[in-house]
Design brief:
8 strands; binds adenosine-5'-diphosphate; 5-stranded mixed beta sheet; binds magnesium ion; transferase; Heat Shock Protein 90; HATPase_dom
């Protein structure tokens, strides 16, 4: 009788241990899912927010470098070569946060579109009417002609991930609009994509040769 009791207790203890293990696993899954949900809400809010531009004087080279630092883990994970073709720096009257976020979105799109060992070229140029254009060119898969007109639409995405809401380029477009500038895209399937951020001369405080 006593041995039977011990056996039952041992069995129950084992069952409890299994239950504890499975409960811990469930708690872990809940915690990871909650983190994922928080990240989704955070990204969604960032990209859907009303854009309020607070212009200050900023070096575009600094902002580009900061954006590159933010995406560096992705750059390293795909072994992307980044070529900075910047013959000058410009001090722009722009919103540092929103311009940096826009660049991060564009760089992430480029990296998403690439096979490992791809290349991104960042180029600064002066426009005919004394504005400044930043171009970000990748050698990724490109965008088909029948979808390129939709990439600036809100919620247009060809990606499977639930962290991609199709708001990145919509946000970039609006950021540039609020700066009095523009955001354009050109692409060829199998060759790559270029995104152009153009600031008009009112936004250019100073051009510094480097
Ligand atoms: N550099 C790029 N190369 C290829 N396709 C791109 C690139 N940038 C944007 N796209 C296309 O435009 C769509 C919209 O981009 P975006 O607004 O940033 O949304 P998301 O990245 O969430 O899909 C992407 O899903 C993709 O199909
Ligand atoms: Mg995107």
């Amino acid at each position: 009788m006593c041995i039977d009791n011990i056996k039952i207790s041992t069995k129950k203890a084992n069952e409890l241990e299994t239950l504890k293990k499975s409960l811990n696993e469930d708690i872990h899954i809940i915690s990871v899912s909650a983190d994922h949900l928080i990240e989704m809400v955070k990204r969604f809010r960032e990209q859907m927010q009303d854009i309020v531009i607070s212009p200050t004087q900023n070096s575009i080279m600094d902002i580009v470098n900061q954006a590159l630092t933010m995406v560096n883990p992705l750059i390293l994970s795909k072994n992307v070569t980044v070529i900075k073709d910047m013959e000058f720096d410009a001090i722009l009257k722009c919103d540092e946060f929103h311009l940096k976020e826009a660049l991060i979105n564009i760089l992430k799109n480029s990296i998403d579109a690439m096979e490992p060992n791809g290349r991104i070229i960042i180029d600064f140029s002066r426009t005919q009417n004394r504005g400044i254009a930043i171009s970000i060119t990748d050698d990724g898969k490109g965008i088909p002609e029948d979808t390129i007109n939709r990439v600036f639409d809100s919620f247009f995405s060809t990606k499977k991930s639930d962290l991609n809401f199709g708001l990145g380029l919509f946000y970039c477009y609006n950021v540039m609009l609020y700066h009095g500038g523009k955001c354009d895209i050109s692409s060829r399937v199998g060759e790559g994509t270029s995104v152009f951020l153009t600031f008009n001369k009112k936004s250019v405080f100073e051009v510094v040769e480097v």
